[in-house]
Structures are given as structure tokens and as C-alpha cells.
Amino acid sequence: MDVTKSPPEQTSPGRPVLDLGFALAVGWLLYYGSCLLVAPSLEIGGGFEVDWQLMSQDPFALQGRFPHRILVPLLAWCTGFGGDGYLTFTHGLHVLLIASTCLVALRLGGRYVDALIVGAFVAFTAPTQMYKLHWNGYADPVCYTLFLWMMLSARRPEVFWSLFFVNLLNHELAGFLLPWLFYLRRRADNRWRLDLVWIAATCGLYLGYYLWIKAQAAQLFSADYFLSHPLFPGGTFAVWNLAAVHWVTTFGPVLAVLAWHQHARPPAVERWHLWLVVLGILVIFCIAFDWARHSNLLMLPLVVAATRFCGAGARHRVVAAGLLALTLVLFWLVPPWESTAWPTNLLADPGLLVQTGMLVIGQGEFDIGFGTLGDALGRWLPAVWPILAIVHGIGVVMWIAGIALTALRKS
To answer: Contact, 26 vs 99, CB < 8 A?
Structure first.
């Protein structure tokens, strides 16, 4: 018997205001609960949050290393949280992220208890917790929120692609998920020619905006920077492995529901959520080194898989709660949120990366080159393979556990 059969994507019946109120309340409660485990920092460090805070004082002054990523500083400035209030603003946006997760779960046909569990999956794992310490003040969670809103608006192309353009203004990584976004629209609407027009229009508009900014202000992280500091293929191989380690250590056993979703006979087309998002992540890492940031996009297929898992019945909800509890215990025993967290600190130790040729430090700020594939396979991998094999093995066990969960009967 197919234990994964669940209602098609739909608006939660007849109670949109109640759903919204529920989602916001759950978003606040879960975020508050997550802060009991990882308290948000309100200190500016030496990362890119410096640039976003500077931009939030005057978004139109075109300051910082990436003045084209204007969305979150602009929102902070418009709401009176520019400058010193910037970090408080970014942490508060996590409530919106978690609430949006709950709304997507409800839209997929989940019950309120399902939305609560799925929201907790996001609140207590990397998409929320990583941005309280290690990536404090970064704007990435707004990208995740906008992607969730696009899932909610997939039937309305004018809203969907407008949100895509807004997402590009936050971070150009949104463009790497175009195959997944096109797939979302195909599930809701067969007018693919219309979508091609929208894609051309939004990307063209963003390109014009980007080139105008480039002509007006200095940009460290422009397309020229990435072309002159190639990561692929040697650095990409290392980053792909580090991203897999990040998934295991910062999402934990809840990842098992992804394997369940692939093997428990859901609607076959839904399996593409995982693979198209992972494809986008892997392509991002052909140019970008921040594996502990962009790999958090895995939350998008996780939300779908977790909703379907919980919707399969009471037993599945109990198991989902158990997976979350086990994840929290493991996070308590081995906290993964600091930049020096084990085991990533062993695999990505700067001294080791330089010694093995994976990093080549030049003169000037962020003048960092990357080693060849030969350096990755012949020098870095032999130095890290024991711990890397253990973590990959744990990931395989999680996947097998997810397959084993397909034996659960619908209740």
C-alpha cells in the first residue's frame, strides 16, 4: 500500500487568516525556543555583516564590498533598523522564515501539527541556527523566505517572477535555482513560453541594475572577481565534500525524511524538488567557497519531504518528533554552530588548506586562489580522508534509515 499518498498542493481550507495567525505565532514560539539553544549574537564581527550594516545606514550611498545586494539593508533602513539596529532586524526575520515554512506545509495539505513539526525542523537546524553565530547578520535567510513565498505563489506568474527579481536583489544565488523554479511553475502552470519571457525580463532587468551599480561604485565581489579566482575543479571538489559534512552535522537525523520521500512512492514528480535544488547548490560551489551558507538551501526540499512524511499519519508524526529530538540531543553533545566546530574545523583548517595547496594566499584583501584537482585528490584528500569517511558514512546511515522508514504503515 502507498503510505505516502497525500492531498495535492492546496490552500488550507477556508481559513487563510487563521492560518497566517497560526504561522506567525508558531514562527515566534519556535524562534524563541531555538534561542534557548543558540542565543543570537548582537556583535558585529569581521565578516560580510559589516558591509550589510554599513549599507543599512544609507542603502543608496553604494557602500561596502557588494552594493548590489541591497534588499535587506534597504528593508532595515525603511523600518528604522538601519545601523546599530541591523543585527536585531536580521535575527527578527527568522520569525518570518519559520512562519513561511509553516504556511508552505499548510499549503501542501498538512495539518497544523504537521506545520508545527516542519517549522521546528527549520527552526532548530542550520537555516536558522547558523545565522546567529557563525553567519551573524548575513542576509541569506531572506533568500530562503522568498523561495518559500515563490512556492506559495507558483500559480501566479506575475507574483512568482517578481519575487524572483526581488530575490536577485538580495543575492544573485537565486539565479542558480532557475531549473527548480521553472519546475515549480510547470507543476502549477503549463504556459512555459510565458515563463521564458518572464525569466528573460527579470534577468535582463537585474543585469541592467547590476551593470549600473558596477559603473557607479567599486565592487570587490563582482563577476570579475570570481572569474579571476577560479574555484573549479579542485576547490569545488573540496567544497562539495565540506557541504556534505555540513548537511550531516547541522541538519542531523531529520535528513532521513529526504530519503523516505525518495523511496516511499510519493508523487513521482515531487522527487525532483531534492535533485534540482541540490543541482543548483553544486553549481553554486563551482564559483563560491561558502559551503556552510549556500548548502542551507537544502531546507527547501526538506520542507516538502517533512510535510509529506508527517501527513502520512500519526505514527509518522511521532517518528518525525523523535528524529527532531535525536537531532537536538546530538547538537547538544556536538554543537556545530561555531566556526571552529568539530569536525569541519579539521577538514577546513586554514593551515591545512594552505599546506595542501588548496588555498593560495595572495597580496591584498580576499586575494585567495585555489588549488588544482590534483592538489585536492593528491594532497588534501589523503590528509582528511579518515574523518571525511566517517562523516560520509554517517550520512549514508541516515539515508538508509530513511529508506527503512518506508516500512511504517499509514495510521
So the answer is: yes
Q: Tell me which residue has cell 505514527.
A: 315
**What share of residues in the chain are helix, strand, coil (percent, to 5)?**
70, 0, 30
Q: Would you say 102 and 121 are in contact if contact means Cβ atoms under 8 Å apart?
A: no
Given a cut of 90, whether residue 317 has pLDDT beyond it is yes
pLDDT one-digit tens code per residue, 216-252: 887 766 666 666 678 899 999 999 999 999 999 999 9
pLDDT greater at residue 193 or residue 366: 193
| One-letter identity of residue 192 | W
Q: Please say whether the beta carbons of 147 and 127 come within 8 A.
A: no
Distance, CA of 365 to chain centre = 27
d(CA 288, CA 236): 8
Q: Please report which confidence band the pLDDT of residue 75 belongs to, taking 50, 70 and 90 as the band edges.
A: very high
Give the number of other CB atoms < 10 A from CB of residue 363.
Answer: 5
Q: Angle at Cα 162 formed by Cα 160 and Cα 164, nearest 5°?
A: 75
- Give residue 288's region: left, alpha or beta (phi > 0; psi -120 to 50): beta
d(C-alpha 154, C-alpha 10), whole Å: 11
Q: pTM score, two decimals?
A: 0.93
R_g over Cα of the chain: 21
Higher pLDDT, 400 or 364: 400
Q: CB-based contacts of 382: which residues, under 8 Å, 6+ apart?
A: none
Q: Is-contact 159 153, C-beta < 8 A? A: yes
pLDDT over 90 percentage in the chain:
76
- Nearest Cα residue to 304 out of 104, 132, 152, 142: 104
